[in-house]
Amino acid sequence: MDLNLKGKVILVTGGAGGIGAAICRACGQELAVPVILDRDADAARQLQSKLQGEGITSEVIVVELTELSDVRTAIETVGDKLRRIDGVVNNAGTNDGVGLEHGSPEGFAASLKQNLVHYYAVTQAALPFLMRAAGSVVNISSKVAVTGQGGTSGYAAAKGAILGLTVEWAQELSSYGIRVNAIVPAEVMTPQYEEWLKKFPDPAEKLRNVASTIPLGHRLTDPSEIASAVTFFLSPNQQSITGQIHFVDGGYVHLDRGL
Question: Is-catalytic flag, 252?
Fold first, then answer.
């Protein structure tokens, strides 16, 4: 199916690795131009080189997303160079373990800045271009927003707020033809997830235990599956889909994990 993304410029925050890299690749495969927004210059350039080897044109903007003035400059740089922005994928963030009992208000605020505030900053900075393009925004949330996890108040608050902003922005921007949707992953096999597994005495056993709780296939989600959902929502073919929260999780959240 042709998603009609050819030539579209798509910003992907945290685009250098994991889910973000998969999204960049999927956009490129649909002949869009992914713009990798990431603070890791080496990883971003390495991905760009790999994509180039696959015949995919991409751009790299190195930016620390928590520096909000730098965010606006980065988006202006994209606009000046490419003259358009058709889609924004807000993806960057990390489960930083800022809890309630052993956390602090300062740590909580820092967690929100790392996981939430740049979603607002990037989208607002790109808004003039999105208005002209009647573009699309896809926000990546997390199952933690609806299941909780324990010991990660900052991340949970950020990911819950992202769901609220998705609906709010869909309402506010509907008059411009801009669609806003959210993807909610659960257990996804990314480099960050692999590092988390290494903290356990037997990572392979921990992985088997986690996979056993996922109803569909008893396996973790691959980043490419998240990316496929993202490109679907970015597509201008989906003119009636907005304000939606879509779970790509093998039934983790909504099906009985005890079976």
Answer: no
